[in-house]
Amino acid sequence: MRLGQIPATGRAANPVVITDAAWYRLADDLAVALASSPRGLIWVTADRGTGKTAWLQALMPAMRTDFYLMDLRDQVETAATLEQLQDYSNHLQGTLPALLLDNLSPADLMALLAEPDHPARQLVPNHNGPILLLSPEQEDDAVAARRMERVMGRSMIRHDLPASSRSQNQAVLVAHRPVIEARWKVRITDAAMGLAVSGLHYRATPGQVVEWLERAAARVAVVADEGPAECRRLRSELETLARRIEANRDTGEPVEPLEQEFEQCSLELTAAEVDWFERQSQGTLRQVFPEDVRAELESLTGSSDHPDLHVPTDVAGGARRAGSGNLRS
User: Fold this and answer.
1) Where is this region: Disordered (predicted)?
2) pTM
3) Residue 101's closest CA among 143, 148, 146?
4) Residue 44: helix, strand or coil by DSSP?
5) Distance (Å, whole) CA 42 – CA 101
6) Residue bearing the bigger pLDDT, 236 or 313
């Protein structure tokens, strides 16, 4: 660990895989800019879910100056950094350490600086090293950026993170697959992966597709353990009907209508359990199929024909699996 470098705090240990040449080129360009411009103020923007934090993993090894990767919202961490900078003595590199502020926009930073007791008020305006912010763009960032330039006496340079390539997106999904499988004790089939990857040909971000896979895996795990939601509802209804029938027998009230309703509900339960028992007999209750991913997307978007996903035909098993459908009902 280089002098002056602090590991990120409060961040999940998600797998990071970078295969995009454009990402590495931008990382190299900004590493040079941060090392050669002690008063550099850089803002890298990208939409949520596009891999901004992952891109930082390409930047940090290329850095030729010490740096702090920090969460400025954490007052304890910010105060500790401020104290360490007061004792910083490696001026041979020509500049103080860079501050890498992940997930912090100009508007976010100015809001922190407006808090009277926040240590960022001492750290940021008085920092004589380069500063890099990384965040999605918000409506008020343009005004906040101009205010920041006046407060700090610097000119801000903005860079847009290049859209990740198909190979980069696919690498992200492949890296997350075993993590999701281990977390939910399921197996994501190649066909389900093919469906998820197909979403990356359109407008979906890697973060969105990872979320779809995660949610589909979680739901498969819940259904495998507890049964489909509709089956659970019908079982509860049968229990209620059984209690009502027993109570009516005790009081001499008619039971025939309730018994007919009980019989109808039992038939509905049997029909609803067909898919679950079929997958149980096949040993596939804890496998994620394309229809599970598609059904999860439908729950998020309200549409089964989402423009960001289609069932691929060039993936083995990518066409709809024969047999039972998803287990959500």
Assistant:
1) 299-329
2) 0.70
3) 148
4) strand
5) 10
6) 236
Contact by Cβ (8 Å): 221, 184 = yes
The Cα–Cα gap between 223 and 218 comes to 9
| Lookup: tokens for 228 | 């489909």
Helix (H) or strand (E) holding 288: strand 287-288
pLDDT-derived band at 260, boundaries 50, 70, 90: very high
Q: Using an 8 Å Cβ cutoff, are 109 and 148 in contact?
A: yes
pLDDT digits (tens, 9 = 90+) for 162-208: 987 778 878 888 989 999 999 999 999 999 998 888 765 556 678 88
> How many helices (H) does the chain have, and how many strands (E)?
13, 7
The alpha carbon dihedral of 20, 26, 32, 38 has a sign of negative
User: CA separation (Å) from 92 to 64, 89, 220, 269?
Assistant: 12, 8, 57, 75
Task: Report the SS3 class of residue 43.
Answer: strand
Residue 287 contacts residue 323 (beta carbons within 8 Å): no
End-to-end CA distance of the chain: 52
**Bridge partners of 100?**
69, 132
Residue 98 half-sphere exposure toward CB, CA atoms < 13 A: 30
DSSP character for 93?
G
Q: What is the pLDDT of residues 122-141, one digit of tens each?
A: 999 999 899 999 999 999 99
CA distances from 14 to 57, 183, 219, 238 (A): 12, 12, 21, 44
List beta partners, residue 69.
100
- The two most distant CA atoms of the chain are separated, in Å, by 96
Domains and CATH numbers, the chain: 21-160 (3.40.50), 166-228+273-301 (3.40.50.300)
Are 206 and 169 a contacting pair, CB within 8 Å?
yes
